[in-house]
């Protein structure tokens, strides 16, 4: 819950509510990837992290 | 007020403890875990900081993390969105890491802090500073200046890649930023990748390679890759780069422009790579100079503070000093992300907690010579060495200095571990391998038999501060080895026409000065001035070497082999001593000769570490 409230405060502070649907899709999509994949190790690319 | 700064989860994790504005301790996690650029939570480094500060987590008022994960995620999302569908593969690979861990960093941090607190929940205040705010704070607050312009440059933080600001007393204000994807650090990293080195660790090799080449690609870079304005602001042409959407730094268009594919790691280095290195170095220097001139004009300040990974480019720093854009320059010794831990703590101390910054009265800086890491008492050193099976003798101070100076004058490679470990990427006489700079073979011997690294790489000199102007074209402090200057004219040797005609690495085999081991092919040297007040024992050693040889200079390279973090403990030092061609080891007051050691303890050390 704390995470969601912070995310909400972040979007308010940055005035980026348009990110909300993208975030929802990302969470759905990401959840699927995480559930269907064993490893969360990404390759070492400079800007990914 | 006690503030613990943390940098982690990207590369070069570190912790730093600031107590009432005083920097008490700082260390990188890699030194404890022995894993180069360790990105994990800095458990050991934080535990060390607490021990050094004589407190536990209950005594910590604030913990400050060095960047803002939500802002970084926002950058990722918007970048992928702007480039979709091209970045889908990279997006798919990045997402699980974020969904599992990085988005929930606050909870993760609290959980890790609980472990340090011995399982007790830690409910103190957990703060986050922006990445470049951390860098800027690490540059200005410990600096010797009451007021200064501040310039930070690196690959990327959240959005910011370059920031300009002004510091005055306890106030630090960022006035201008350049945002991702336009980044001087990433341009340099693109060439690091293209010349066959590892991004994020091979940048200093590109810098070392540059003097062997001619900047014949500089025009091409400025015509096609980067558009630099008069005030130093710049934009990259992203059609040549792959880092926004792909899994490499550059793309086919970049290859076509530069006339070929990237060099494969460990392939032979040719003149082309040297010319590429010289070119990106020349362009970087031009941009840094323009940025500095721009900020000098807009702020009217006479002092400049630098931090961020690009500030580790000591060749550009030296040029900045020589060009006289600012009267004084100070560079944070831990300018990379490790220093973000310190900057985060200092930003919170002065910016959030509102603690006043002590007035400056002409003193040097507050970094204590960067000797902020762990130190070992003589009893612990002896116990550690004995447990490792070492044979040593314990000498009184003066005898120890004399024996070490004698060994160095004899041309021996000496491992030197004294006092507190350095914070930042440079060994400054706390964890160093030392040699005689007058020897024409020392550079090659150290590179190939001691450090097991590429033969083109130069070594840096340590010189008594009081003698620096006698040997180098520099008459100021450079305690952190972050300024490059030329060898003094009178110390150089004339080259024959035949020697002058040599190309590339062949140039290196020619003795170009009285101290050839630390003279790069362009007569430059990355200088460390040694000061009696911050490292008296190292100062005494240099003085003893000077008394014997007339030379107040030593070769100083970090105490490690290629790919290994710098040694931390006596046991690390002994292992490295037994695995390499180091002939004498001096730890505290213990003096070790290689020939006295049990041959059964010699180990194959070279292949133990992944090459960097």
Observed structural traits:
heterodimer; A: mainly alpha; 2 helices; elongated; B: 612 residues; alpha/beta; Nucleotidyltransferase, domain 5; DHBP synthase; 5-stranded mixed β-sheet; 18% strand
Uncertain residue segments of chain B: none
Shape of chain A: elongated
Largest sheet of chain B: 9 strands, mixed
Please tell me how large the radius of gyration of chain A is.
Answer: 14 Å
> In total, how many beta strands of chain B?
21
Topology pattern of chain A, helix = H, strand = E: HH
Describe the structure.
Chain B: Residues 2-346 form the Carbamoyltransferase domain. Chain B: This is Carbamoyltransferase. With 49 residues, chain A is mainly alpha-helical. Chain A has a domain at 2-34. Chain A has helices spanning 2-14, 19-36. Chain B has three domains: 2-66 and 68-128 and 337-366, 2-Layer Sandwich (Nucleotidyltransferase, domain 5), CATH 3.30.420; 178-330, ATPase, nucleotide binding domain (Nucleotidyltransferase, domain 5), CATH 3.30.420; 378-608, Carbamoyltransferase, C-terminal domain (DHBP synthase, Alpha-Beta Complex), CATH 3.90.870. In chain B, strand 1 (2-7) and strand 2 form a beta hairpin. The radius of gyration of chain B is 23 Å and the shape is globular. The mean pLDDT of chain B is 94. The interface between A and B is medium-sized, with 29 and 39 residues.
